[in-house]
Amino acid sequence: MRIVRFGNRASIRPSKLYDEWQKKALSHLILLPKWTGRYPVNIRFYFFRENDRRFDFSNMVEGAQDVLQQSGILLQDDMRHVFPVIDGYEIDKENPRLELVIEERYILGESFGEIKENSRRK
After folding, report:
1. Residue 26's CB: how many other CB atoms inside 10 A?
2. Which of 35, 47, 55, 100 is the most exposed place for a label (fewest CB within 10 A)?
3. Under 8 Å CB-to-CB from 92, ≥6 apart: which residues?
4. What is the pLDDT of residues 37-87, one digit of tens each?
5. Segment (H or E) for 61
6. To which H or E segment does residue 16 belong?
């Protein structure tokens, strides 16, 4: 995280390293097809890390979901649309990456259901 100042105002921004990753990820994702299946979805994440340094799964997943939405692949990345599933990680010094699979969410062999525009709880 970093603090960026705009005159008298300050804003908390992601790190420059994250900004670089986001730009690179978006340039790749923008070429991929958009999700046309039903919501909600499971996104299965498998991480290939450059090293064995400690990291936070939730931050990694949040960043990936954000760029999937920004690229237009996902409609939304909130809890009504996406259920993240972390399948694990391993070390690959030669080719660090994230592999993911988007799939419709099923419960006991039936579709979990589609998101409806006016389905807010009262």
Report:
1. 15
2. 55
3. 48, 49, 50
4. 999 999 999 999 999 999 999 989 999 999 999 999 999 999 999 999 999
5. helix 57-70
6. helix 16-29
Q: Give just the sign of the alpha carbon dihedral 10, 27, 29, 91.
A: negative
Which residues, in sequence order, are bridge partners of residue 46? 88, 99
Counting runs of H as helices and runs of E as strands, what totals does the chain give? 2, 7
Q: What are 111's two structure tokens?
A: 């579709």
Question: Taking the domains of the chain in order of start, what are their residue ranges?
Answer: 38-114
Quote the crossing angle between the two packed helices 16-29 and 57-70, to the nearest 10°.
50
Write out the DSSP string of 36-48: -S-SSEEEEEEEE
